[in-house]
TrEMBL record, chains A, B:
Membrane-topology annotation of the record: Multi-pass membrane protein
Native source species: Fictibacillus barbaricus
Pfam family membership, one: CDP-OH_P_transf
E.C. number: 2.7.8.8
NCBIfam families reported in the protein's UniProt record: pssA
Name used for this protein in its record: CDP-diacylglycerol--serine O-phosphatidyltransferase
Family (UniProt): Belongs to the CDP-alcohol phosphatidyltransferase class-I family.
Top EC category: transferase
Reaction(s) catalysed by this chain's protein: a CDP-1,2-diacyl-sn-glycerol + L-serine = a 1,2-diacyl-sn-glycero-3-phospho-L-serine + CMP + H(+)
Length: 181, 181
């Protein structure tokens, strides 16, 4: 009976522990969605800050999952869905709202290409066994570079952002090997 | 030699066939992303139409995959990522831009809850074996209902949309069993 009670407590503790990493992932997702809401209201600076905050939580959830040894298939799936929002859609919309909208339809197409390539990268990542290196630039890296580029909008000609968007898109779906830091 | 050549042609044909369903999924995703771009510019009617067009392609890709017997793990992953955009973020933003923004912070929180619950629903779906019924209302159904509600904004009081958003959110993560049509 004592053993059973102990097992029950252990199992509850394990569940709480397991959810801790997923909780961080959901904060990351919420920050990404909040960034989009601020960007809809043309509040790009707050959107920019929220994307980097999401990036911080993205580092945390993986670290927590590995440290506590609670990596799960559910967590991996949730992480990908979350990455698509925080590092796919949010940075693409930041640069679209800040610069690319000037280009009209081509600006829209390039923004969509970035999101599509991000989704392809994530789907491919989810079905491959991880061996220490990523195939193709991770969407987190591409998304953070895209968001960071926002700081240079006053110093760099607008067409540079078209090249950046399409360049990062292709780097995500390329077969370049990137070692995990 | 003839056999080898035939196998090569067969394999190329299979690859093209396999990509046909994924191509439809990517059109669905592009329509969802385009809907978001139109909604950023406050063009809600076009956003609404694009969400339903995405819904049409979502029916197609599954049908094509099953008919051609080319259901793949990559296709399943891509489909989920795509569903989160076209039936999670896009309808949530449509209703936020149309009505919920009036409620300030609570309106933002409810919009984010819808997206978070959609992501949880998709992550759970991806790790469970499909047995003919869905557990929880699918995000495609919740998203299309949410988008359809846009047609009633002139006839229904604004707070109804707060209830609708939170209600659909919980239906997605509930354990209600929904039979596949």
């Amino acid at each position: 009976m004592f053993m059973l009670e102990r097992e029950r407590i252990d199992s509850t503790f394990k569940k709480v522990k397991a959810q801790s990493a997923n909780f961080l992932t959901l904060i990351n997702l919420s920050l990404g969605a909040l960034a989009l809401l601020f960007m809809i209201n043309n509040d790009l600076k707050i959107g920019f800050i929220l994307i980097f905050l999401a990036g911080l939580f993205d580092r945390f959830d993986g670290m927590v999952a590995r440290k506590l040894n609670i990596e799960s298939e559910f967590g991996k799936q949730l992480d990908s869905l979350c990455d698509l929002i925080s590092f796919g859609i949010a940075p693409a919309f930041l640069i679209y709202q800040a610069v690319l909208h000037q280009f009209g339809v081509p600006g829209m197409i390039f923004t969509i290409i970035f999101i599509v390539c991000g989704a392809i990268r994530l789907a491919r990542f989810n079905i491959t066994e991880f061996t220490g290196s990523f195939v193709g630039v991770p969407i987190t890296v591409a998304g953070c570079l895209m968001a960071a580029a926002y700081l240079s909008i006053n110093f760099v000609p607008a067409f540079f952002f078209m090249f950046l968007t399409i360049g990062l898109s292709f780097l995500m779906i390329s077969t370049i090997s990137v070692k995990k830091q």
